[in-house]
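Table S2 (continued). Query chain:
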Amino acid sequence: MPNETLTTQCAIAGGGPAGMMLGFLLARAGIDVVVLEKHADFLRDFRGDTIHPSTLEIMYELGILDDFLKRPRQEVRTLAGQIGDERVTLADFSHLPTHCRFISLMPQWDFLDFLAGKARSFPRFHLKMRARVTDLLMEDGRVLGLQAETPEGPIEIRADLVVGADGRHSDVRTRAGLKVEDFGAPMDVVWFRLSKHASDGQQLLGRIQAGVVFVTLDRGDYWQCAYVIPKGGFEQLRDRGLEAFRAAIAALNPEFADRLQEIVWRYVCSTP
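Corresponding output:
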């Protein structure tokens, strides 16, 4: 038996960018909404941190852009890369017909904290952290809500509408029996971080050579790095050895040669 039963108009499983933005928009429109997030906070590494001009324009239309721009972040007005031996400008946002002609770089956890703070200003928004959705409430083939586990015990959320925004491995989607349409992304990404030194120059966003793409994102006190490999190619990469991988990174970016011992095998994040 549940320890608590809540009733709402919309229950959202997942407090990522999609779930939090939907919760904010619904509460802003006067709709009672409960967002359930299984973690205690939003602090997770290797997540998207680019907020594009089109998203910034939506925030302007919603009246929250000025407050967002006061948050610690970075602005990227042009994107440069290196293809072979040639440095090229990949994008120049100065020509866009928007209020913000740049990409804003902000760790995803900071962006979600910002959205949660804005959403909480509406009395019909409810965010429950450490609430892991375990199942759907079903009756006569209809979805009536969600079941979730919390530190205080199981709860039920009865809702007119249930939204699964719980990621690529969605439990809500699985429980609902919905099928995934796989478009077959042809790549995997090996993520790692390297310390940032005061002597580091401005890094190129991407370095592209035959069969290799290497991306660096400035996280303030460290570089978040992405090494793109063929789909399913991590085992082959690991079989060649860690020193071979470090040497490949050094060849792509000689400035990092003095800190490559920081790279260790941990895991590989696959693209959706």
